[in-house]
Write a structure and sequence with these properties.
106 residues, five-stranded parallel β-sheet, 25% helix
Length: 106
Amino acid sequence: MKILLDECVPVLLRHELLPHQVFTVTNKEWKGIVNGQLVSLAAADGFEAMLTMDQLIEKELDPATLPLTVVILQARSNSLKRLLPLVPQLLSTLALLPRKSIVHIR
């Protein structure tokens, strides 16, 4: 699966998501692009999911028109140390990912 990490997700998390193809917003040179446009760009580039910690993204996007799945990671901070405990659940969710929806990982 091709996954995009939003700017607020630590880059090193990509190493925990193998065998998925994981790219960052920085890799794609999409830094600073607003959420709606970012989701559209990602879908047009073949991404199936975007991981973010942006809790407000759900209010900005219409789930009925999503071109990909948005996975919202919820932790006390965006440090890798705080996100690592979410990885097993994240990998399980990615394996059965509901298409074009918003999913929360707590």
